[in-house]
Write a structure and sequence with these properties.
Elements lengths: L8 E8 L6 H12 L19 H6 L6 E7 L2 E7 L7 H7 L5 E7 L6 H13 L3 E6 L8 H12 L4 E3 L5 H4 L15 H14 L5 H11 L3 H10 L4 H9 L4 E5 L8 H11 L10 E9 L5 E9 L2 E2 L3 E3 L2 E2 L4 E2 L5 E2 L2 E2 L4 E5 L7 E3 L15 E5 L8 H10 L6 E3 L4 E4 L4 H15 L3 E3 L7 E4 L3 E9 L2 E11 L2 H8 L6 H7 L3 E3 L9 H12 L13 E10 L6 H18 L2 E15 H13 L3 E8 L2 E9 H13 L3 E11 L2 H12 L10 H7 L6 H4 L31 H9 L7 H13 L7 H11 L2 H14 L10 E5 H5 L3 H9 L1 H19 L2 E6 L10 E6 L2 E5 L6 H14 L4 E4 L3 H8 L4 E4 L1 H18 L1
Parallel strand pairs: 1-3, 1-4, 4-5, 5-7, 6-7, 25-26, 31-32, 31-35, 32-34, 35-36
Antiparallel strand pairs: 2-3, 8-9, 8-17, 9-16, 10-15, 11-12, 13-14, 18-20, 18-21, 19-20, 22-27, 23-24, 24-26, 27-29, 27-30, 28-29, 33-34
Length: 930
């Protein structure tokens, strides 16, 4: 008889718990029980399998998520240990995406606290089935039955059943189904064994019978099956576990190995491998660095299979594959459900692969803390800082080249200690932290008006916008509206009020509101969140067929920026809700500190021997209160509550601190004009209609006029224009009006766009130069050969940042930066008689089909489509041209992508800086020849 091959099931088992619940001890106990290790380690001895980092062993807590696997018969379990401390909850959250089953640890003496409730709820939201383990029962002196009832009530769940008295083998005869034979016994033998077991022991022991009845009562079907056959189908239990109707509970002492046999037997019996697709898919949930400095990605395969040297994302191959374990284990391939590690390039980031369609938007922080290194410029370690950005996105590390500073959004002392430890290990440098710099909100001081328009052939729309200040309470009420009332409230309290809304094409308004909510416009003064306002749109003029949604959107943006720059600013203080868990002996000191920091204590809840404090505190005092509470060894968490308007005196003190300007001198400065508001711009002053078609081909308004927070607008001769309209005289066009405003404010207009590009080219390629270039080409041409013209593929943004002066302009005005390099590359292509393709990333632009511009006969500018990076486009084009027999040159500074994407394709690779040097040399040769 042929041996039946048993498929190995891969199952990820996640450990979830608050700090000091015994997660590491439980992982050691499970590994020991499974036979994976022969001797258990201990946290306090510093020899546990999972907590290997020196800081983890010093603190006695888990900081990094790590995995180790063990096998039992046909199942391979990946035990994933997640951080329990709240400061590292982002690391735990990322792990939830890869967990199949969870073990939620509870300590017997502490019972259910807020952190356990939070973890239980997060598992529910993610659909993760849970085993509940009440650990450290060797220290528990109370009543188990009372503790069980307390847990059931705390989680409001009747499906929490105590499994700890029985191992699975004790009840197998009453649970096994016909297909539960591990693929070895025949169905007939299994059925016969069941009948014999039921016949021999039709009624289990009293305790066992109560247990089976509790299981059967999970549903009517289970009850009927038990009453008829005296058994509960194992598939029934697995189904209820998956649906989170059953939560097996175990009382254990991991340190003494008590209850672990029962726990592991039920985990093996009840856990099943999920169903996966055959298409390659996975998720990169953590990035770290090896001792050798290599970037290591930790991932889970969600479909297909991945082998060595196979491409796992566009233009990147899996050069090594390892399974984490007691010792790291190299493998040839990984299968669905497995956790594994592999070296990754600088361009790989957290998220799904091959394509990431689940990338979350970065959260805004409220407390940027300045990072520095004593006696050194921290930006010289920019590459290392960018690496930390990718490894720990929750830290919000921001690198500003313009301001030459680095900030981070750190939520507590442990995160600061970890960042300091990483800097010391990797760079041998001591990191210093400044006092956090609070992000204040901004709102309009008064009503203001703005005009917006797009006028060019085939695109015609104009409108008037009124910016209206609103009370903060109204705005917060809208934010707090419940899920059921959201649609109704959004209609009643929409930020937009639009005259003649019915004339707009269907979907324009809802789309604008959605995009507006996601935009998070900064305030004009301190670039904080712009809050508490409404917008009223009137005087809407457009023709169907000659205006599109993007034109409507651009006109609204123009008008908003104009109104925002003249409305003045009121500063808003961010307030935060805090939650503090404190012992009775520390309670008095903490309440005194809250009062000293001008906080508002709202609730005081008793939880056994500890207390929970709930209240609100202004952002200026939050960091000090957090440091004080954590310094006392107590738990502190906070969340943003609302913005509240600041007193004028307090706001002026903030501006004096930020700008170094005494309050009495503030009105004379640019910041003062933005704060108090420029000359009031009324609806009448902006006029009504009088729009004329712009035949120049360029967009009017903010297409050429880009207003920002530093702009101050003054509209003059408004009365004269109004008088002209009253008398019936011809009014000036919108383009003339806005251009006049711009010139009075900023100086002569500089046209951007296609006409500017052509004008710049003419400056470089004048008739005289063109004639000399033709002579130069003749000298350098290879006579008698008709070789295919060389193809230059240039990563646009990479090349744009190759020189400091180009980069500085691009950071101020990206379009101007692009226009600066276009004539240079066009001249290079003409001089060397090559075809040059300048490729820009546009893969994050939603619904972007991509675009190709033929700048001249030898140069194309390509904007990639949505989901296609410049690296991918370069690799594909290099491959296509090489196969067609063309010599190819690739210009990119992404080293890892170069090696993987173009090796074997016959392409020459230059870094962006090398190519920029060649371009400069070309300019010098031309200048010398002239």
């Amino acid at each position: 008889m042929a041996e039946i091959e048993v498929r190995m099931e891969n199952i990820v088992l996640g450990l979830l718990a608050h700090v000091d619940r015994g997660k590491t001890s439980l992982s050691e106990a499970l590994l020991y029980e499974s036979g994976r290790i022969s001797e258990k380690g201990r946290v306090d001895h510093g020899d546990s399998v999972l907590d290997k980092d020196s800081l983890e062993r010093k603190k006695g807590i888990t900081i990094y998520a790590k995995s180790v696997y063990f096998t039992k018969e046909n199942k391979r379990f990946f035990l994933l240990d997640t951080p329990g401390h709240q400061e590292f909850s982002s690391e735990m959250e990322r792990c939830l995406a890869v967990i199949d089953y969870g073990i939620l640890l509870i300590e017997g003496n502490d019972g259910i606290q807020k952190r356990e409730l939070h973890l239980f709820e997060r598992a529910r939201e993610k659909g993760i089935p849970l085993f509940l383990v009440v650990n450290k029962m060797d220290l528990f002196q109370g009543d188990r039955e009372a503790l069980l009832r307390e847990i059931q009530e705390a989680f409001s769940c009747e499906g929490i059943i105590d499994f700890s008295p029985y191992a699975f083998s004790d009840l197998a005869a009453f649970l096994q189904e016909e297909d539960f034979s591990q693929g070895v016994d025949s169905k007939e033998n299994v059925a016969l064994e069941k009948k014999e077991a039921i016949g021999q022991k039709a009624v289990p022991s009293e305790g066992c019978q109560d247990f089976l009845e509790n299981l059967a009562l999970l549903s009517e079907e289970g009850t009927a099956e038990y009453l008829e056959n005296g058994r509960v189908p194992l598939g029934f239990l697995r189904e209820n576990l998956q649906k989170r109707k059953l939560f097996p509970l175990f009382f254990t002492s991991a340190l003494k190995q008590e209850g672990i046999t029962q726990l592991l037997s039920w985990i093996f019996a009840l856990c099943q491998m999920p169903t996966y697709s055959e298409e390659l898919r996975g998720i990169l949930y953590k990035i770290s660095k090896s001792p050798e400095g290599r970037r290591i990605g930790r991932a889970k395969l969600l479909g297909g299979s991945l082998s060595l040297r196979q491409e796992w994302r566009p233009s990147e191959k899996a050069l090594e594959l390892h399974l984490e374990g007691v010792e790291e284990e190299a493998v040839e391939s990984v299968e669905p459900g497995m956790l594994f590690t592999m070296p990754i390039s600088e361009n790989a980031g957290l998220g799904y692969f091959p394509e990431d369609d689940h990338r979350e938007k970065e959260k805004e922080g409220y407390f940027p803390t300045l990072l520095s290194i004593e006696g050194e410029e921290i930006l010289q370690y920019r590459k290392d800082l960018e690496e930390l950005q990718k490894e720990f996105p929750e830290w919000g590390i921001s690198i500003s080249l313009a301001e030459k500073e680095v900030t981070a959004q750190l939520s507590g002392n442990l995160q600061k200690e970890l960042l300091t430890d990483l800097f010391a290990k990797r760079l041998g440098k001591k990191l210093h932290f400044s006092k956090p710099k609070l992000r204040y909100g901004e709102s309009p001081r008064r009503e203001a008006y703005g005009r917006g328009a797009v006028l060019e052939p085939g695109h015609r729309i104009s409108l008037l916008l009124r910016l209206i200040p609103m009370e903060g309470e109204i705005h917060r009420e809208q934010q707090k509206a419940g899920e059921e009332e959201k649609q109704e409230n959004s209609k009643k309290r929409s930020i937009f009020s639009i005259e003649k809304m019915g004339e707009l094409p269907e979907g324009w308004v809802s789309r604008l509101e959605t995009e507006w909510a996601e935009e998070h416009f900064p305030g004009p003064l301190l670039s904080g969140p712009y809050e508490n306002y409404a917008l009223e749109i009137s005087n809407l003029s457009f023709s169907r067929g000659s205006a599109y949604y993007v034109d409507f959107q651009e006109a609204v943006y123009q008008a908003f920026r104009m109104a925002q720059a003249t409305a003045g600013v009121r500063l808003l203080m961010p307030y935060f809700s805090y939650e503090i868990s404190a012992s009775q002996e520390k309670l008095g000191k903490i309440l005194q500190e809250i009062e000293r920091q001008k906080g508002k204590q709202e609730e005081l809840l008793s939880e056994g021997e500890s207390y929970q404090l709930l209240g609100k505190i202004p952002g200026t005092s939050l960091s000090e209160l957090q440091s004080f509470v954590q310094g006392e060894g107590e738990s502190f968490s906070f969340s943003f509550s609302s913005y509240q308007e600041m007193e004028e005196e307090q706001a002026l003190a903030v501006l004096e601190e930020r700008f170094g300007i005494p309050s009495e001198e503030l009105p004379l400065t640019t910041a003062g004009k933005l704060y108090y508001g420029e000359e009031f711009v009324s609806e009448a002053a902006l006029g009504q209609d009088g729009w004329e078609e712009n035949t120049s081909g360029g967009k009017s308004g903010a297409s050429s006029l880009k207003l920002n927070g530093s702009a101050s607008l003054q509209l003059k001769n408004k009365g004269e224009q109004s008088e002209k309209k009253k008398k019936g005289e011809e009014g000036i066009s919108l383009e003339e009006e806005l251009n006049a405003i711009f010139e009075r404010t900023f100086g002569p207009l500089k046209n951007r766009g296609q006409e500017a590009i052509r004008t710049e080219q003419k400056l470089f390629l004048s008739k005289e130069k063109e004639a000399r270039l033709e002579e130069a080409r003749a000298q350098y041409a290879k006579k008698g050969k008709k070789n295919k013209r060389k193809k230059f593929l240039v990563d646009g943004y990479n090349f744009l940042f190759a020189k400091e002066e180009w980069k500085a302009l691009a950071q101020t005005d990206l379009m101007a930066g692009r226009e600066q390099i276009l004539p240079l590359l066009s001249e290079y292509a003409a001089y060397h008689d090559v075809d040059l393709y300048l490729i820009f990333d546009a893969y994050r632009v939603k619904s972007n089909p991509g675009k190709t511009l033929q700048l001249d006969p030898r140069m194309q500018v390509i904007f990639t489509k949505e989901g296609e990076s410049a690296d991918f486009a370069l690799s594909k084009m290099a491959n296509d041209f090489s196969q067609s027999g063309y010599p190819v040159v690739v210009v990119s500074s992404d080293q890892a992508v170069q090696i993987q994407g173009f090796s074997g394709k016959g392409a020459i690779v230059y870094s962006s800086k090398e190519f920029a040097f060649q371009v400069e040399e070309m300019k010098k040769r031309i200048s010398d020849s002239l």
